[in-house]
Amino acid sequence: MNERRSLVIYLILLGWCLVAFVAGRLLPTGHQALRLFEGEALAVVFLGFFAVPYQHLAGLPTLLDIRVSQQHRFLAPFVVGIAFALADLLALHFIRLPATGQLLPSFLQPFPYSFLYFVADAIYLEVIYRLLPFTILLSLLGHRQLTAGRTPLAFWIVAALCAVAAPYQLIVKAPPALMVTMYVLHFVFNMIQALFYKNAGLLASLSMRLGNYLLWYILLGMWLQWHL
Predict the structure, then answer these.
(1) Is the CB of residue 114 less than 8 Å from the CB of residue 31?
(2) The whole model's pTM is what?
(3) How far is CA 39 from CA 19, 42, 43, 83, 220, in A?
(4) CB contact at 8 A, 111 and 222
(5) What CA–CA distance (Å, rounded) separates 163 from 169?
(6) Number of CB atoms found within 10 A of residue 124's CB
(7) CA 120 → CA 64, 115, 195, 200, 219, distances in Å?
(8) Does the pLDDT at position 100 exceed 50?
(9) Contact yes or no for 130/58 (Cβ under 8 A)
(10) Chain centroid to CA 115
């Protein structure tokens, strides 16, 4: 029953990504840097559906594991995500991006499309940096230690590799100090996400990213869109 509910929840996430994929192609292209949720990303999220039933084989909590409280699955990681977004905003305040002549910087999107797009992007990134690599590799290595409450070396290796790779999407034309600061912040961000994933499952790591995206991408974009 728990596995079936997890699959239903994942289908809802997949449906959100499908809506984002279609909606972006129906929008007028007035924004200079409109970003579309690509078909390759949608295919990756679809592939993740087949990994969901094997979370327990990797020693990881299922999406709706009854051993995990809602506070640990949603509230705590969401608040941590917001805290990292505040750190990002402080870095942006003290190390400013160069002017581009656009109403919105290229990494932001116009509201309300931004809400649809960035939630879909968060789902995609959690599939590619959490669900697929951790499920596949930990199913083969170290899952017995995770199930027994110990953290195997394989977990830390996968977590570190994903934390090194994930922040590369943040590299933009910006002062080197800003890029280094953002990279370090998001390396730590991804390592903490891995711990939330290990202890509370995929929805916890997704909640942390959504907390970050809500402030950093969606609310910041709304503020710039309506005040500049």
Answers:
(1) no
(2) 0.91
(3) 12, 5, 6, 32, 27
(4) yes
(5) 12
(6) 22
(7) 20, 9, 22, 21, 16
(8) no
(9) no
(10) 14
